[in-house]
Amino acid sequence: MEALLFTAAGGRFLTRLAALDEILMPVRLSPLPGAPGFITGVLNLRGEVLPVLALAERLGGVHPAGWQRGNRILRFAAAGHPLGLIVDTVAGIRTLGDDQRRPPILGARVGGCTDLWLIEGVMTQEICLSELLAPTQLGLLRDLAPGAPT
Where would I find the CheW-like domain in this sequence (predicted)? Predict the structure, then answer.
């Protein structure tokens, strides 16, 4: 499996490369009046309005105000909705073998967190981007963008 390694909220994470559409440089985000609190802002990406959320906040931390050196936006889709996810840094792409996989802590998949992987001697949490938002949150996105996928 090919995975993108990245950091957020002081932790090291990975996501499957196949789940990503692209990696974007930081750009100015615009506020979206009436948007749910989990949306940090939106950006205009080649004519597409892309809601953006911060992984640090999703993990219970705080996303610092303003862009920091190394920040990136991961573009992906959840239930057909294009989204952006702010991460602190991107550490590169790795090819992982099944022998590096470890079961989830407590055997549960919570908030998009799935398996652990042993990479270069460090346990790294896998995040399934399509599972970051709860169904109710995806419903709020549908309400913001009528005509979007259901």
Answer: 1-138
**What value, to the nearest 5°, has the Cα angle with vertex 72 and ends 95 and 141?**
100
Q: Which positions of the chain have pLDDT values less than 70? A: 61-67, 106-111, 142-150
Q: In terms of DSSP bridges, do strands 101-102 and 48-54 run parallel, antiparallel, or are they unpaired?
A: unpaired
CA gap 77, 75 in Å, rounded: 7
Terminal Cα-to-Cα distance of the chain (whole angstroms): 29
Give the whole-angstrom CA distance, residue 61 versus residue 56: 5
pTM for this prediction: 0.84
Domain count across the chain? 1
Please give the C-alpha separations between residue 11 and each of 26, 55, 59, 103, 139, in angstroms, as whole numbers. Answer: 20, 11, 10, 18, 29
